[in-house]
Structures are given as C-alpha cells and as structure tokens.
Write a structure and sequence with these properties.
Layout: E1 10-14, E2 17-21, H1 27-32, E3 38-39, H2 40-47, H3 50-53, H4 56-59, H5 63-72, H6 76-94, E4 102-104, H7 106-122, H8 131-151, H9 159-162, H10 167-195, H11 210-217, H12 225-256, H13 259-272, H14 287-299, E5 306-311, E6 315-316, E7 322-323, E8 328-331, H15 333-337, H16 353-364, H17 397-414, E9 415-419, E10 429-431, E11 434-436, E12 443-447
Parallel strand pairs: 2-8
Antiparallel strand pairs: 1-2, 3-5, 4-12, 5-8, 6-7, 9-12, 10-11
Helix pairs in contact: 5-11, 6-7, 6-17, 7-8, 7-12, 8-10, 8-12, 10-11, 10-12, 12-14, 12-17
Length: about 450
C-alpha cells in the first residue's frame, strides 16, 4: 500500500467493481456499526459471488455462527481426545512409509488430514471418514475458488451469463448434490425424531458435532434437510480450506527456518513431562508454537483485505468521511499488519515475535497477570486482523488453533521435514486478494528414530 494512502481512504479499481479501502483510524468505528448500516455478510456475498456459488445461503442466516460460538467452542476440551485419535488414524491412512527421506506433497496430504479433523467436528465420527464426504470437503473448495477467481476477472454484468459456462461451477454443483444425497436421509431422520421429541443431542461423542446441533436448533426455513446439508458443505469450505493453508504455510516457514524445530520440540517435551501429564489443557501452554502460528499467518494470510463491509445505508464517519449507500469497503489488513510501525522488520520471519511480546506483557505487570491472550494466534487486535475484529471476528478461530496445534505436536514429535535439494520456501500464489499455495509442491519427510508423541 503506497505510504501516501496509509492515513486516508482510497479507491481500488478491480475488474468487477470499485472497492473503498479505509485507513486503520476508522477500525473501531467500522467494527461497531450495525449490520443494518454496514453488512459483513453483504460484502462477503459480493466478494465470493454468492448468487453464483451458493454462498448466499450461509450468509442469510447466523445459525451456523451461533452454533460454532456457543456449542463447538465451549466443548473443545471434551472433543480434543477424539481429534487426537482421528489424527493418529489419518496419519496411518495417508502418510507414506518414510523411515528414510521420502518425497511427499504437503498440500495434497494435509488436505486429507484437514478434511478428516474438520469432519470429526462437522459431521461426527460416523461420517468423517466417509470417502464421499472427504471428496466433497476437499474438492468443492477448489471448484468454488476457481469459479470466483475466473468470474472476478470480468465485469459484474457478465457474471449471470458467464458462470454457467464454467466447468468449475457445474462440478461444484455436483458436490453440493452429492452432499444432499449423503447427508439428506440422515438429517431427515434426525429432524423427524427431534420434532416428535424422540431425540436431541446428548453429551456423547456421536452427538457432539455441528450436524446434530444444526438439526436441534434450526427453525423456520432453515429446518430443511437439503438446506442443512448445503450449510454443512459451506462450513467444510470455511474450516478445511483455511486450516489447510495454515498447515502448509507453517510447515514451509519451519522448514525455511529449521532452528525452530528443536525449540518447539523442547517446548512440547517439557509440557509432556509436567505433573499433570499431557491433556487437553496442554495445548494452551505451547506458547512458542502458538507464536509460530501467528507469525506464519502474518506473512501468509488467506487474504490481503479484511473487515469487509457493504454499506446498506449512507453513513458519515466521525472524521467526516461520507460513505454512499451501496459502497463496498474494507481495510488493507496485510499492509496494516506488515507496516514497520506495527511490526519490526516485517519482511523477516520471527517465529517467537508474539512469544516475546507476551513475555514482556507479563513482565510489565507488577502482579504478573498481564494479558497473555492478546498475543495468541486466535486473538484479533488492532493490527492483527486476519480473524476479523470485534463482534464479527471469526467464531471458528479457536477450533482452527486447536487443530493446528494437535497436528504440529504430532508432526514435530515424530517426523523431520526439509525442502528438496536446492529448494527453498515456495512463494505464495496471489489471485485477486486471495493467497494460495501451489498444490503440487514437493518436500521431504522422514520419521524420527526415537520420536514419541505425547498423545
């Protein structure tokens, strides 16, 4: 972002329309505006071309948002042992034999891992290993983003005609139909039992998933098997894709800075040897690993723009900036987080950057009760906006943090990684404001001789 625009709004001209990019000085006021004035969902629908991708369905309701926030997040501790078991099973199923250095493709491998772990929370143990569901979870995302990237190369008036000519659109529709065929009968059966008072989610593993909670809480037009099946597909898109990108990028960043491998392993081993042993609370004590996750996301976020809003009404900010009705606005989140005023030497990967800040916060508090959480991976801040900010912050960020830590505790404890001979960290691929990983990139993996995972 040019320095001359850092403190004031400017227009970004894109193929499909104009975006108003706002300065960080308006962050707090923007984040508190009601959706009736500045709609996050309206912006996301426009951004991801909801009418042509099916994403408008999930944006019309906050049901999934409240379930993740009120049902999934509070139960993460209970779900942790099941996620650990699912990861162990997935690694046995998908990892290549690697007693010696062996080539593998992280994106392809982690896509399957991410789908299995997300599926455990989204559809439960009975379906998270279903091959049809796993295929949908991974490949629907590819179709959707292919459709979005292509359509957004063209002006809006062409979209209603052009989207039907894209093979990726029709493949995506096929995955949605497959999901309705797979999940529909299960959802209809649960809806019937729930309506007749014969079933409601119990505190047991098979009922502790988003599918069961959706059935139990959906009302009105949402209380439909096909609608809930479609919602599950879109939730898989959100959880599998974003977690997959973070898995791959963290591994790239560690392999590019191999000194962190031993430091993180030492942290894991130290926590495993504590008096209480390894348990679901252990992950919150992995402060160095958490710092690496946060630093990786700073340098390789899923998008360079955030806090997106579609103004449903005209509005004038306190500083006098007038926003006409219908304006699409956002903040340059990548530029903000990588501004040297906010991040020292932003071009350098410093995996323990947030860890040191957390330590300094603790030390500066005379009672030793400094707020360590403000520097954690899942914590949004004024200059850390990848998960959003304020009341619209991503509700799934706690689940994503847990899944990533479970994975890297296993990988760091039992495996070694490096780039191919002569290779280095692959560059991110940018399409519009989105950042992707090259799906066919290869690396080397080897099982550690005496590696022991604490779970």
């Amino acid at each position: 972002m040019p320095v001359k625009f850092k403190a004031r709004a400017f227009h970004l001209i894109r193929g499909e329309g104009t975006v108003l990019v706002l300065p960080i000085s308006l962050l707090d006021e923007l984040s508190t505006l009601p959706s009736s004035i500045a709609s996050p969902n309206g912006a996301l629908e426009q951004d991801l071309l909801g009418p042509y991708t099916g994403l408008d369905l999930i944006l019309e309701s906050r049901l999934h948002h409240s379930i993740v926030q009120r049902k999934l997040t509070p139960r993460l501790g209970v779900l942790t042992p099941g996620l650990e078991d699912e990861l162990k099973s997935a690694i046995e199923d998908y990892f290549p034999p690697c007693d010696e250095w062996t080539e593998f493709m992280p994106y392809q491998l982690f896509g399957k891992i991410s789908a299995r772990l997300a599926g455990k929370a989204l559809v439960g143990p009975a379906l998270c290993r279903d091959l049809t569901w796993l295929d949908i979870s991974v490949n629907y995302t590819e179709c959707l983003f292919e459709t979005i990237v292509i359509l957004r190369l063209f002006p809006n008036w062409l979209h209603p005609v052009l989207y039907r000519a894209l093979p990726s659109f029709w493949r995506g529709q096929g995955y949605v139909r497959s999901a309705k065929t797979l999940l529909g009968p299960i959802i209809r059966d649960l809806l019937c039992k729930n309506d007749n008072g014969l079933w409601s989610p119990a505190d047991k593993e098979e009922d502790s998933n988003v599918l069961c909670w959706l059935v139990d809480t959906a009302k009105g037009k949402d209380r439909d098997a096909d609608t809930l099946a479609h919602v599950e597909v879109l939730l898989a898109l959100a959880s599998v894709h974003t977690t997959l990108l973070r898995m791959v990028n963290v591994l790239y960043d560690l392999a590019a800075n191999p000194g962190y491998f031993d430091e993180l392993r030492a942290e894991i081993e130290s926590e495993a040897k504590c008096k209480k042993g390894w348990n679901e609370a252990s992950y919150s004590q992995l402060h160095k690993l958490d710092s690496v996750l946060r630093e990786s996301q700073r340098m390789s976020p899923p998008t360079t723009l955030g806090l997106k809003r579609l103004f449903k009404q005209s509005y004038t900010f306190a500083d006098g900036l007038y926003i006409p009705k219908g304006t699409y606005a956002c903040l340059p989140t990548f530029a903000i987080e990588n501004d040297p005023e906010h991040t020292l030497d932003p071009e350098i990967f410093d995996g323990l950057r947030s860890y040191r800040r957390s330590q300094q916060t603790q030390a500066s508090d005379s009672k030793g009760k400094g707020n360590r959480e403000e520097h954690q991976f899942f914590s949004p801040g004024r200059t850390t906006l990848n998960f959003g900010y304020g009341k619209s912050a991503c509700p799934g960020r706690y689940f994503a943090s847990l899944v990533l830590k479970i994975l890297f505790v296993k990988l760091l404890s039992e495996y070694e990684f490096k780039f191919l001979s002569g290779g280095g960290r692959p560059k991110n691929i940018m399409a519009h404001e989105f950042l992707f990983c090259w799906p066919w990139q290869k690396m080397m993996i080897r099982r550690k001789e005496n590696g022991i995972c604490p779970f």
